[in-house]
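User: Hi! I have a protein structure encoded as tokens and I'd like to know what sequence might fold into it. I'm fairly new to this, so please keep things simple.
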């Protein structure tokens, strides 16, 4: 199989986080939360509470047309927007976290908010605040080439969401234009699914490694610590979002305590899948 070689990016916090977990013979843990949920101060509290327990913090940009997300994240994003979220909140939150944690800061955003803000300004401002990478799950083909050039110039990794049934040629092309890591869906459907992981996921992870040489993160469907342990047996990173938000929604105390408890449970799941050195 033809293997793509990703462009050379400066070493970043994301590379360092993945290297640390690899040295510990485990998958990295990524935790996702929309910025501004449940409130601006509650979001900061929860993110700071999760940071000591994870390797990557994935900061969500709230968007009302989040068509790839399930009800849990859609409702959380809508609540953040109703509470007055603005794009500047992403950058101030990133700078606040960057000053106090070694977790890599990655943003997950739909393309429309980036296009409205200005792709160049978005990339430069997020990078200056301490961001390490950007995942745009609905990045349009018409914008991809310029977006990859823009993120690289800003020193950010451009992280692709992998189609579950992509051809080898498509995977190779993705590896050529992207960097940091590849993000593969762990289960079919939208975020928040509580069903089993896809039986084809291990094969997709192997194909991605063969075709791109990128570390492989899996998310979408990591609903329990047991699922995190299952995926950690073969993935380089697992990302959890909806399950954390559901814990926060069900908690009677503050968002920080609930987020920290969820983070501890999921990191325990990841560490249960301790793997021998490669």
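Assistant: Happy to help. Inverse folding works backwards from shape to sequence: for each of the 278 positions I chose a residue that suits the local structure. Here it is:
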């Amino acid at each position: 199989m033809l293997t793509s070689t990703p462009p050379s990016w400066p070493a970043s916090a994301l590379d360092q986080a993945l290297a640390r977990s690899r040295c510990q013979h485990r998958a990295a843990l990524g935790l996702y939360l929309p910025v501004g949920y449940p409130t601006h101060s509650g979001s900061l509290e929860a993110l700071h509470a999760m940071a000591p327990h994870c390797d990557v913090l994935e900061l969500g940009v709230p968007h009302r047309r989040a068509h790839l997300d399930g009800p849990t994240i859609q409702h959380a994003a809508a609540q953040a927007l109703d509470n007055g979220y603005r794009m500047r909140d992403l950058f101030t939150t990133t700078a606040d976290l960057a000053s106090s944690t070694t977790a890599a800061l990655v943003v997950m955003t739909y393309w429309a908010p980036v296009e409205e803000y200005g792709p160049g300004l978005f990339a430069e401002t997020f990078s200056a605040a301490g961001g390490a990478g950007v995942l745009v799950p609905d990045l349009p083909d018409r914008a991809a080439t310029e977006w990859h050039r823009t993120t690289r110039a800003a020193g950010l990794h451009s992280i692709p969401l992998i189609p579950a049934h992509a051809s080898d040629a498509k995977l190779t092309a993705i590896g050529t234009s992207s960097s940091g890591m590849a993000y593969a869906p762990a289960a079919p459907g939208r975020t928040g699914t509580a069903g089993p992981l896809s039986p084809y996921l291990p094969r997709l992870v192997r194909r991605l490694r063969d075709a791109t040489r990128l570390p492989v993160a899996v998310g979408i469907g990591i609903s329990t610590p047991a699922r995190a342990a299952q995926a950690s047996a073969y993935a380089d990173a697992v990302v959890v979002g909806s399950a954390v938000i559901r814990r926060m929604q069900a908690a009677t105390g503050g968002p920080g305590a609930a987020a920290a408890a969820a983070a501890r449970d999921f990191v325990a799941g990841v560490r249960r899948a301790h793997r021998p050195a490669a």
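A useful reference point when you look it over: The domain at 13-272 is CATH 3.20.20.70 (TIM Barrel). Feel free to ask if any position seems puzzling.
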